[in-house]
């Protein structure tokens, strides 16, 4: 089990920061996925908090997605399904939460990182925050994060990202609706997030909760949907294609 990295919550009145870090470009091993979900559920119990800022720290990627070290260690369907369920559980936890989630995307987002950005209710990014769905190149496909990404950018753009595994710029993400604002400096980025979070924290809590329901209307079946998607990924991660790709990747 990969134990490096950390997840913490910082609460300042009605605004909370959910912060994660992993030295491997903020990739997410299973234990960190569980910790993030745990903190989301804990925050839901805090009636005072209205807004949660999801952010990572460090100078590298916002989130590099699944941990390749952990992917390499998966040797059976059950473990594979459990690992990918970690991403599904985070998506569903944010979806069901009454809090408004703002994503702070300070740099590149890959795979599951794109899924996190898409799942948050509002995403504010730096101009360097390009995005990539890299799963097909690995031999898996973006099955678990797919519903969240498609919901934000539409089927056509999601298909393009899934099949043409290349980097898409922050401006492209802004045009497609994955991002809602893009800033040229981290200072501007943080000021924009602070301004929005403050405004939201001063809003009517009942109105925010009702808006959250409206945002996620039509996703009531996602518990079952994402569980099935995790099973697909859990099966494909065992393929020779994927195992060979990960071995080559780790050697480079």
Description:
The chain is an alpha/beta fold. The chain has one domain (6-189, 219-251): 2-enoyl-CoA Hydratase, Chain A, domain 1 (Alpha-Beta Complex). The protein contains eleven helices and eight strands. The longest helix has 20 residues, at 77-96.
Short description:
With 252 residues, this protein is α/β, with parallel strands linked by helices. The protein has helices at residues 30-45, 68-73, 77-96, 112-119, 135-138, 146-163, 170-176, 186-201, 205-215, 222-236, 240-251; strands at residues 6-12, 15-21, 51-56, 100-105, 109-110, 122-126, 131-132, 181-183. The strands form two sheets. It has a six-stranded mixed beta sheet with strand order 1-2-3-4-6-8, sandwiched between helices. A two-stranded parallel ribbon has the order 5-7.
Helix share of residues?
A: 40-55%
Given the C-alpha coordinates, what overall shape results? Answer: globular
Count of beta strands: 8
Which sheet architecture does the biggest sheet show?
6 strands, mixed
Regions with pLDDT < 50 over 5+ consecutive residues? none
- Architecture, CATH level 2? Alpha-Beta Complex
Termini gap:
23 Å
CATH superfamily: 2-enoyl-CoA Hydratase, Chain A, domain 1
Oligomer: single chain
Global mean pLDDT: 95
- The tally of structural domains comes to 1
Derived from helix and strand composition plus strand pairing, the structural class reads alpha/beta
Strand numbers in spatial order across the main sheet: 1-2-3-4-6-8
Secondary structure tally, helices:
11
Radius of gyration: 17 Å
The helix/strand series, from N terminus to C terminus, equals: EEHEHHEEHEEHHHEHHHH
Amount of beta strand: 15-25%
CATH class type: Alpha Beta
CATH topology: 2-enoyl-CoA Hydratase, Chain A, domain 1
